[in-house]
Amino acid sequence: MANAHSIYTPENSQPAPCEDGHAQERSLLGQVLETVHAGDLWIQDWNCCPCAFLCGSDSRGAGFITRQHAGLPCEGITTLRPVGRIETGQVAEQRVQVWDAQGQAHLFRRIQVKLDQATRDGDRGLYMLTNRPLRKASAKRVARLSRKRWTLETAFQHLEASFHSASKTLGYPKAALFGLCLALVADNMLAVVMAALRSVHGATMDQNLSLYDVANDMAQTYQGMMIAIPEGAWRVFSRRRPAEMVATLRVLAQKVRLKAYRKNPQGPKKPRPKREKITKTPHVSTAKLLKKRQVSAVANS
Predict the structure, then answer these.
(1) For residue 104, what are the CA distances in angstroms to 36, 55, 82, 99?
(2) Cβ atoms 3, 166 nearer than 8 A
(3) Where are the domains of the chain?
(4) N or C: which terminus of the chain has fewer CB atoms within 10 Å of its end residue's CB?
């Protein structure tokens, strides 16, 4: 099976797609850094915490909030100072200094969250780095924004479960990457539908809503609508202004019966079993196998 992945970037930038689904995200950061613009705010995982990427973003005038990787060298300028608590634990802050490859120092803020409950990996403390000044983002706001980064991880779960972004029948890397891109477009459409529903039924209505059932209903109904409704009837929407389209979506959202899409109640989650690594037959990505075959063919010709 071929696989692929992509790094999301701010909406005024372009994603960094990769045919090799086993490639480490850090190998794509050189491409991503070229899309960083002044005024951006990047909220990212610790895989995006290399010194070159953080300092490069800082030099370009872009802001970031990133989970600190243990391998990032930094020097504390001040001691940790308690600043209060958020929903998940106590928050403290300090100033740190990081040097880039040219020896230039960059001054960042380091935010610590002492968790009330350990993560599933057993961590009791989380550390974030940011270059945003205190007047624009307090330590508690930085910690809360960092928590929202997990909504992106959840989005990829929806892509796989609801839109089949990782189809096992796609044996070619470019086909897998194209399938992922189509799933991303479908997820954007679902996001518009959910925004319309929230504007009518309240901001918390999706807490008990099954996104899988909503996406499944959209997919099943689409084929019938394309048969029953002539193609020309859809063109009216392409001529509408954004405000007019929003008004239409709100009218349609008022007619949706949310009870039909309620989540099924689930019991308590079981702890994840420890995975056993199999070293005899390592899983190699299709993109790497094809590239190796091409290199061998060129060398033998």
Answers:
(1) 20, 9, 29, 5
(2) yes
(3) 36-147, 152-261
(4) C
